[in-house]
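Page 42, continued from yesterday. The earlier attempt failed because a stray header line got pasted into the input along with the sequence. Redoing it now with the clean sequence only.
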Amino acid sequence: MTTVLFTGFPGFLGSALLPRTLRRDPEARAVALVQERWMDRAREALADIERDDPSVAGRTDLVVGDITTTGLGLDAAVRSRLLADRLEIFHLAAVYDLSVAPEIAWRVNVEGTRQVVAFAREAADGAGLRRLQYVSTCYVSGRYDGIFDESDLELGQAFANHYDHTKHEAERVVVKARDAGLPVTIYRPSVVVGDSTTGRTQKYDGPYYVLQLLARQGGTAFMPLPPGADRVAFNLVPSDFVVDGIAALAGHEAAVGRTVALAQPDPPTVVEMCEAFAARLGKRLRVVPTPTSLAGFGIDHVPGVGRLFQVPSSTLEYLTHPTIYDTAATTALLAEVGVRCPTFDEHVGPMVEYFLAHPEVGTAAMV
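This time it went through. Structure tokens are written below.
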């Protein structure tokens, strides 16, 4: 029997992938490793999943653990039971906050991944490891100026924040284990936004800060953007594409050993994205050329500017992000399992409609 271990539950990806994985293998059981402080939320999420799909009811155990500690902080009996079965691991847990303190980012994203990989190696040496499914990010590219291929990782790139840097270091850990023979698939989403059909999302961050800024203004909306924003791509993908891609490739043998760029093959430029947002808000867009350094300084240091714009300065670097993501190999691989990335034009409407209909959604994520 296969046991599927999830980290990062009850976050968005874990909650979406857990039932899909159990449906893929009717004989499998799931174990969700949950921090103690999130256990009540995990129980609620699991109850929702089992109510929506009775076929997976009773097949998931919630266990207390901590990916940053040896043995994942698991009870000895639970650990022994996991290692006695053929194991599949979905490592989804990470700190996603761009402004996170460096010590937290390194502990969770890098040390946590080291501990998960160590546990995967134990499983491989025991009853067997089916696969380690690891979610990274396209932004392991850092600020590489050029085309970044799915197989690229070490190109001497610089990093704008601790999130990108720590996810790069964590992927290095996974790649080293993969190259040593561990069965691994690495998934690299770009900026994830709402569902392509409903627009539903758990949080408003990233490009939603632009939406919020435009929505607060009158019929003519002024958007400060860095020079060259009409040539810089902003790569955003709907959440259902990311879930569909991971769920389908997790059971696809051709994905073993691969790195998958879950990114938009034809992304809009920053200006095109802002124009699309403004049009769907019923506004005229006026771009105000503003160097990123000047905007960041104003937000962080000039009284009233941060409150006016309500945009974290840490997000501004993505408005000048120089990297283009080559998705050709991923697109071909996804075609084998019937998954296609919706175009920006196809999903921007539901994204804006959901944003307007749900002002209660916040910017916070689980950490």
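Notes: The first strand starts at residue 2 and ends at 7.
Reminder to self: strip header lines before submitting.
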